Amino acid sequence: MPAGSLYGFLGPNGAGKTTTLRILMGLLRASGGSATVLDQDCWRDGARLRRDVGYLPGDIRLYGNMTGRSTLAFFDSARGTQSRDQINRLAKVLDLDLAKRVRDYSRGMKQKLGLIQALMHRPELLILDEPTTGLDPLMQTTLHEELRHAADEGRTVLFSSHSLGEVEQLCNMVGILREGLLIEQAKIETLRARAIRRVEIVFTESGKAHTLPKGLHVLQEHDRRLEGSWVGPVQDLLKWLVETSVREVMITPPDLEDLFLAYYANGTPGTAEESS
């Protein structure tokens, strides 16, 4: 994964996202193979890795009797860092009262506190397990801006999600997990090129085509109206349409949701490829 990437780790609940992230953080030992992060063995060098990486677990647990500020001071001291300025900035950006005790925090407030502890030491790598859980839409947008800023500075962000819309909006790289296996890894532009577009064509009386292009799959056809789907570069479809007499054409934007669901059907669409 290149430095400065925003990498979305995508899959439904139970696909293995959290288990994989825990292995990368040295919190679980892999049953086979090996894993390295920042040139460190995830299991053998786990303690050092957890100091150097910004990590947000999916089930964050904090000491209820401590205030938000004392919690962050504890993390800062444990890492041997000095992050007071970043703590104050992030608390303001995320609108979190650090004077309250953690036991009085709502779920969303605890999530914000967890995000601050992951971000405050400006780590080279952020590993975040479903970071927008419990955040309202405004705070989700604010977090996305923080993550984009981190990537612009050359820091790498790996976060898991079961929301394709969030990944599509934020990421430049996507990995799709199914039953613990990485079945696809590609740039978001590559996935968009493979994604499904809904197509509706009304031919002229003399223009109804007998030979359809390879990427056009007919769902319904009546008289001179064709409804179907298109997979592939839209330029190929447009070229064919120019050469065909049509009265009306409707082409929807690429539907990544349908493509994602196809990976969880009987097989994976297309050929999985790895793009850097």
Q: What is shown here, in short?
A:
This protein has 276 residues and is an alpha/beta fold. 35% of the residues lie in helices and 23% in strands.
Task: Please tell me about this protein's structure.
The chain is α/β, with parallel strands linked by helices and 276 residues long. Helix content is 35%, strand content 23%. It folds into two domains: 6-187, Rossmann fold (3-Layer(aba) Sandwich); 195-263, Alpha-Beta Plaits (2-Layer Sandwich), CATH 3.30.70. The chain has helices spanning 17-24, 46-52, 68-79, 84-93, 107-119, 137-152, 164-170, 188-194, 234-242, 256-263; strands at residues 6-10, 36-37, 40-41, 54-56, 125-129, 156-161, 173-178, 181-187, 196-203, 216-222, 225-231, 246-251. The strands form three sheets. It has a six-stranded mixed beta sheet, with helices on both faces. It has a four-stranded antiparallel beta sheet with strand order 10-11-9-12. Strands 2-3 form a two-stranded antiparallel sheet. A hairpin with a 2-residue loop joins strand 10 and strand 11 (225-231). Helix 4 packs antiparallel against helix 5.
Helix content: 25-40%
CATH superfamily annotation of the largest domain: P-loop containing nucleotide triphosphate hydrolases
What CATH first level of the largest domain would be assigned? Alpha Beta
N to C succession of SSEs: EHEEHEHHHEHEHEEHEEEHEH
Number of DSSP-assigned strands: 12
* Structural category: alpha/beta
Cα distance spanning the termini:
7 Å
Proportion in β-strands: 15-25%
Give a quick account of the main beta sheet: strands, pairing sense, barrel closure: 6 strands, mixed
Give the number of helices. 10
CATH fold node name of the largest domain: Rossmann fold
Q: Give the total of domains.
A: 2
* Shape annotation: elongated
Give the second-level CATH assignment, the architecture of the largest domain: 3-Layer(aba) Sandwich
Q: Strand order, main sheet: write it out.
A: 4-5-6-1-7-8
